Amino acid sequence: MSMRLYFLALCCLFSSVVFGSSICRRSPFMVEALETTFQTICADISLDDIGKLKSLNLSNISLERVDIDDFLGFTSLESLDISGNNIKELPESFLSLFPNLKELQARSNILSALPVTGFSKNRKLEWLDLGQNKLVLLREDAFSKNRSLRALDLGQNYIEKIPRQIFSNNSSLRSLSLGANKISLIELGAFDSLVNLRNLSMYSNELRYLSVGQFDNLESLEEISFSLNRITWIPGDVFKNCTRLKRIYLGGNPLRFLPMGLFKGLFLVEEIFLNYLEIVDLNKSLFHGLPNIKSILLNDNKIKNLHEDTFKPGLFNEKAFVNMVRNPLDNKYKDLVRAQLIERVSF
């Protein structure tokens, strides 16, 4: 019996030395992160411990490269944060180490390309943040295996084009951020599969127009932003199927004309941002039939006159607020609008 106990003691000691030393032999940043996570020294952390870990934060630690050996054993990991580092690339086999990953934050690095196989090994991925990197080109199959993806942030990169098939398998997406890139082309059909999308952000890009049919399948969309582009033309029926829209941001574009019927049928819309455009006049029925409208920003345009029906009570929601500051509007039109909107207008 004593020999058996002695043997078991040796086994436990050997196991402790092997497992402990394997953790301690990892890169200093990983050792420190694990010691912080488990609140103990590395020698007391086993492979079994990291195999059960659900979340790991490696943000803002000046990490320059990803070493595969540092990430072995994290088979249960669901959330990984490597944002705020200096990582240039993600090794091809890196993402396959986390079969249960649901959330990856890789924001604020210097990634210039995505792995060739994209994120195909992470089919449970729901939230992916790749914002503020140096991405230029997007492969059409980059997210083709991520059918569970709900939020994707590609903002603040250098992306120039949105390929037609890139989101064809991402019907679960609720939020898509493409703002602050260099996008000048959205291939027709690029958004056709995003039937559950709620938020689409494309502010501060290089777009010059919005195409007919571009948003026809976005029936769940609640917020859309195309502010600070170079848009000079919008088709009148571009939002015809986006009947759940609540907020529309078009400010900061060289738009000179808003077509009749642009907001027709948008019964849920609450806010419309049309500030800092080049608008000279408004179609008299542009804002009619919007029962839930709360505010319209028309400040910093070139509006000189208004039709008497534009904001006429009964046609226009008289509870809405209208900002018309810094427009060369004649005093007689100002008096007309003041009488119609009373306290709900600013000049």
Summarize this entry quickly.
The protein has 347 residues and is α/β, with parallel strands linked by helices.
Describe the 3D structure.
The protein is of the alpha/beta class. It has a domain at 1-52. Helix content is 14%, strand content 12%.
Ordered list of secondary-structure elements with their pairings:
Layout: H1 2-24, H2 28-38, H3 47-51, E1 55-57, E2 79-81, E3 103-105, E4 127-129, E5 151-153, E6 161-162, E7 175-177, E8 185-186, E9 199-201, E10 223-225, E11 247-249, E12 271-273, E13 295-297, E14 321-323, H4 331-341, E15 345-346
Parallel strand pairs: 1-2, 2-3, 3-4, 4-5, 5-7, 6-8, 7-9, 9-10, 10-11, 11-12, 12-13, 13-14, 14-15
Overall, the morphology is elongated
Using only CA atoms, what is the Rg? 27 Å
The fraction of residues assigned to DSSP E strands is 5-15%
Mean pLDDT over the full residue set: 92
Elements, N to C (H/E) = HHHEEEEEEEEEEEEEEHE
Helix content: 10-25%
List segments where confidence is low: pLDDT < 50 over at least 5 consecutive residues. 5-21
What is the number of helices? Answer: 4
Strand order, main sheet: write it out.
Answer: 1-2-3-4-5-7-9-10-11-12-13-14-15
Count every beta strand, where a strand is a DSSP E run of 2 or more residues. Answer: 15
Taking the alpha carbons of the first and last residues, their distance comes to 94 Å
Structural class designation? alpha/beta
Query: Which sheet architecture does the biggest sheet show?
Result: 13 strands, parallel
